[in-house]
Amino acid sequence: MAAHKPVEWVQAVINRFDEQLPVKTGHQNNHTKVSTEHNKECLINISKYKFSHVISGLTNILKNVNNMRIFGEAAEKNLYLSQLIILDTLEKCLASQSKDCLRLDETMLVKQLLPEICHFIHTYREGHQHAAELRASASGVLFSLSCNNFNAVFSRISTRLQELTVCSEDTVDVHDIELVQYINVDCSKLKRLLQETVLKFKALKKPAQLAVINSLEKAFWNWVENYPDEFTMLYQRTQTDMADAAERLFDLVDSFAESAKRKAAVWPLQIILLILCPEITHIISREVVEESKANKAGFVQYTTDCCPMDRVSHLSCRSSRVIMGLLAASLISLLLV
């Protein structure tokens, strides 16, 4: 069957995976757990050759499971276990995705999978018994999805930013902006995020601006942790486009930080933005600073005088010791000038 009707065979494996989920079978014993794990491994291997079919099938299963009405503690636990199994399978399939997949795959991922993943990240907040685990698992799927399908995720974020620039409501939905915190970000992707933010930051409402600030800070740390060599290279060979976007965003954020409360909210990102501009750190160390850089020098002085060092230490604990050694050197050059 596999040789003559590969699509039917793949669908049969997907159906078996679906039928043996805890939410369908009830309490799992050792035999059913082994069978479920075997089905999962089969789909992961098959996805290397029938990626679209497997991802589409898993997305439909996840959608159906999410829409199930359940009653009772045992049923809720089985639902939660099933969601974790599906999310873990999706993450592993996406992690093994071939880089030469057709663009049709990306379109399908946007229309089908991404909204389902966002459901967990956006909806499952504190108070839900399994919120943290489900959100963490969904975040892993989004990270893997964005590795080879960054344009799909970026488009969703960019579209939401554009919508918020013309939004007149005081209460705004910033969930899609927060996706920035969970995606795979290398140097080129971080640059795109900064450039997109520069274009739209000023027109955003305050809640959206704060969401962008917080999300970009986390995106930077994701970049440093996952691509430490790129961060090191930044100080060996300046990325002009990156530095330009970072400096322009610094100026926008600096204008936003009018009050002491706002300054406290944005200074970690401002330090990060200056770190992305190695040449500026040298310029503002001079006795005479040109007018266009005066706000950077003033910020460094403010940070030195007002920001407690334990907050800098809190920032540093996010990454490995080696990476933090590099970043600490950058922070010291900023704070002790």
From TrEMBL:
InterPro entries hit by this protein: Ras_GTPase (IPR039360)
Keyword set, alphabetical order: Phosphoprotein
Alphabetical list of PANTHER family matching this protein: NEUROFIBROMIN, RAS GTPASE-ACTIVATING PROTEINS
Protein name in the entry: Neurofibromin
Organism annotation: Oncorhynchus mykiss (Rainbow trout)
